[in-house]
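INFO  loader      accepted 1 record
INFO  loader      residues=131
INFO  predictor   begin
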Amino acid sequence: MKCIFEDHLSQIVIWFEKYFQNENKWIQVPFNSFAPTDFDSIEKESLIELFCDNSLKAKFGRMDLIQFWISMKDEYSLLSDKAQRILISFSTSYLCETGFSVVAVIKTKHRSKKKCRKRNESGCVYFNSKI
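INFO  predictor   done
INFO  writer      dumping tokens
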């Protein structure tokens, strides 16, 4: 079982590194990275200001990544919005994968165990809700 978890975690690290290439490194480590090439001058200046703010460095160390970028909404709205747009894809894909897993379980393992209660005129089948 330990090998399965190790393999899974190593695959997550590889996927995470692939997704957060150098262009998005500023989200993970805003105090030790370069501005991406697609940043305009205002975004670059904001990142430099953020980089120089020692109180934010301390705040970054106390908070998790998503909370930090949400808290920057008022002070560094451009950077916060960009970071949140990239970070939101992780939670969205997680929810989709979880939903597909539930559907797969329902359609395979538990489907044969469920008993049909009744059938209506439109052909829909109602199942007993106990799994």
